[in-house]
Amino acid sequence: MALEDLKSALPGYAKDLKLNLGSVIGNSQLPEQRLWGTVLACAIASRSGSVLRALEPEAREHLSPEAYEAAKSAAAVMAMNNVFYRTRHLLSDPEYGNLRAGLRMNVIGNPGVEKADFELWSLAVSALNGCGQCLDSHEQVLRKAGVDRETVQEAFKIAAVVQAVGTTLDAEAQLQNEHV
Predict the structure, then answer these.
(1) What average pLDDT does the structure give for the chain?
(2) DSSP string spanning 83-112?
(3) Whether residue 42 lies in the annotated active site
(4) pLDDT at residue 57 tops 70
(5) Where is the Carboxymuconolactone decarboxylase-like domain (predicted)?
(6) Active-site residue among 39, 41, 67, 131?
(7) Has 134 been annotated as catalytic?
(8) What is the pTM of this model?
(9) All domains of the chain, ordered by start, with CATH?
(10) Dist CA 40 CA 27 (whole Å)
């Protein structure tokens, strides 16, 4: 299922999502690698099989093998980091922040693509996973690298739309299964 198939699979009540999906992917000002890396990382992080099956082939087509692997790596490492750092931040005992994390995150230091691209993908996944500490960290790295706020916002717009599409399609599939 390609992007157009994904849009047409959305129910009538989700017309805004259909329009937004076309807009954030089809009319994005992001360079191709940043756009499709963000799309792939968010499709993985959305945990929606239908979204991932629809968007992965197009992402693979638009990304170099290195960028494709790096986007998947961003989704993987942020799946871990977002839970860890969000939990540590939410605990009322600030001493957890002084403890060594002890988690491997080597890909962040050597992602195989431009650091800013990987940081943008990590920020988008962090938005989808709701980790404020990771969002702040990645946004600061991006801003120090000269990435403007519009680009940062574009990444979390993609995250928001991809997540909403996945949620809607998965809910519709569940509702249809209940009526069978």
Answers:
(1) 95
(2) HHHHHHHHSS-GGGGGS------HHHH--S
(3) no
(4) yes
(5) 94-173
(6) 131
(7) yes
(8) 0.94
(9) 3-8+21-94+112-178 (1.20.1290.10)
(10) 17
